[in-house]
Fold this protein.
Amino acid sequence: MYGKTGKGSVPSDGQAREKLALYVYEYLLHVGAQKSAQTFLSEIRWEKNITVGEPPGFLHSWWCVFWDLYCAAPDRREACEHSSEAKVFQDY
Amino acid sequence: MYGKTGKGSVPSDGQAREKLALYVYEYLLHVGAQKSAQTFLSEIRWEKNITVGEPPGFLHSWWCVFWDLYCAAPDRREACEHSSEAKVFQDY
Amino acid sequence: LSEYAPPPNPNADHLVAANPFDDNYSAISY
C-alpha cells in the first residue's frame, strides 16, 4: 500500500502532488526553516500565491496522528511510544 | 484529533517530528529541490549522514494514499477526486 | 527553530529514510 511507486495512480494523485508541495512548504515555514521554504518554491518553480495555516500546519498534524497510530499497532506497541487513544483506536 | 496544535502532545510526537523531518528531506531530494534539502538540514542543525530510499520516497507514497482517503471521506467526496478503492475503504 | 522542529541531534548517527512498513524496518532504522 505505501510502497506504490505511482503505478496504477489514482485520480487524486495529481492534486495530491500539488497539495503535498503546498503543505511541505507550510511545514518548512512552521518549523523555522524559512530559507529552505523559499528555496523550495523557487526550485519547483511555484508561482501561485500561498496562504499558510496555523502552526504546526496540516502535514505535521496529520503525520503525528499517523505516526501515533503506526506506533500503537499491536505488533509494534511494545517497541514504540504511543498514546492510549491510539491504542484504543487500533484495538477497536 | 487532527487539528491539534501540539497541545496535549502524545509520547510519540518527538519521534514523529524526527521521522517527518527525515522524510521531508528525502522528498525534497526526490522532487529535485536539492538546494532546499541541504538548506533544510543546516537550518534544523542535522549534521548526520542520511540514506534515502527509492524515488518517490515514503512521504510521497504515504501522502498519496492519505490524500486519496481524505478526499473519499463522505463529506468531501463530492468535491474531491478519489479512487473507488478509497471510497470502499471509507464506507467499510 | 519552532517547537515543531525535529530534535536537533537525532538519536542515530546514520539516518535511513526507509519505508516503515518494510519488514526489516526496525533493524535498518536504528
Remarks:
- Residues 1-7 of chain B have pLDDT under 50 and may be disordered.
- Residues 3 and 9 of chain B are 12 Å apart (CA to CA).
